[in-house]
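CHAIN AND CONFORMATION:
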Amino acid sequence: MISRTARDPEKTRVDLLVCFAAQVEGKIPAGQGGQVSAMVRQAWQVGDFSGKVEETLFWYPPRPARAKVQGIEAQRVLVVGCGKVEEEPAKQREQLRLAAGTAASRARKVKAGSVLAVLPAFTTLAADEVAECVAEGLLLGNYLFARYKQKKGDEDQHVPVQQFLLQDGGLPPARVKAGMERGRRSALAVCAARDMANEPANYWNPARFAEYGRRISGQGDLKCTVLGKAAMKRLGMGGILAVNQGSAEPAAMVILEYRSPGKGCPTLLLVGKGLTFDSGGVSHKPAAGMEDMKYDMCGGAAVLAAMQAVAEEGPRGLNVVALVPATDNMAGAAALKPGDIITQYGGRTVEVVNTDAEGRLLLADALAYGIEKFKPAAVVDVATLTGAVIVGLGHHRTGLLANNDVLAAQILVAGEQSGEPLWRLPLGPEYTRLLKSEVADLKNVGDKSAGTITAAAFLQEFVGETPWAHLDIAGTAWGLEKSYINGKGPTGTAVRTLLQLIRNWQPQDRRCPSAKN
């Protein structure tokens, strides 16, 4: 789908040739060469193109009347504005992703089957970073989920590009290839997570999570284990089983293990909420928007998709283990009821005040089990956990809560580099006190205030001293403002953050205290 080329871009026959332009105050937009540069100059002189963000210049190059005269071989040419070059590297990375996504969107619109994109040399980024971000933007912008459309109408004629070529643009070829491959792995993992989330709940159930885990383990260096209901009963996973009581579909716990070459490597544990549909259970959700509750498994999808890329990338010096507790939350005859008391893995009892606060019950079992079994150096869970995070942060940043400053800082950096920004919220005993129950060790919800924080405080009770971070993606898993790399529907958020965290991995200090604010 994407490959590197050293061919002269103006002498290569493709459906669309793409170049990028940086806005320069009072000057011709920078970044092109040859005949494309002449066209950009002409458009700039008449005031039609300055290289602003998302500004485009599109034309059909004429075919020379004489055979000996060399023209541009591409059927179409597109120049995409990137805006003024940002000073911060993370912002430059996102500039390139968005510009490449713009190019992919335009390519789909004109039904271009092949696209050659010339890498820009006007950034301060390393060559591999430029190639990585452009590759990511092209592939993310090319995403389309149309599995269930039998016949395409006019509005569905934006056919995905079949082949992208990256031309070095004067950058070192080996660095370009390495960065392109890194971007390809990340983007395809995001697209896989989007595919899982787009599937309807009558198809994507716990068995599909298990099937997907087994499939990717067969394609890469992963071990897959699936715990069924009988195994979970033996282990005492009362949270998952309680949520599953009202369902016709049996629950499953999908476990994927990547082992790095060598001995004594630390383990990073990833846990993703796999709630394949959330009706709210007996504490029923309102009907409006309930169709979006098929997206309540986006945390599990992100974790599985990240493992798909981990298997291909083969990081050294770090083991990675992923757990996805999967079920739906239905109001069947045997469903969990408000006021019920359940026993989580490890023996802690929980008074269930609200059956719509079910995700934390799944995650508590998975966290406690995963930490006891795999003894990780650190653990990160990803979940569409609370509507409260949308009230606080909107659809623009993922909520981050952690008991370890070093881990939290690494995740914040990874998110910025990935174009998936996060915002850290506080934790402390004052929030845990809100979960005190009169009849059990804990209750599953506090009062109406600080809902995102009290949900994380509940999870914190099951991680002990292990460095841990919780990513609440309820606001960013879907509903983001539509852009050229995030269309309508699920975004696949957290996949790239997790991969970047793994790529940047630094040892954790278990003694590092949690931030107070």
User: Anything to note?
Assistant: Residues 193-503 form a domain with the Aminopeptidase fold (CATH 3.40.630.10). The CA atoms of residues 57 and 79 lie 5 Å apart. The radius of gyration is 24 Å. The chain has two domains: 2-168, 193-503.
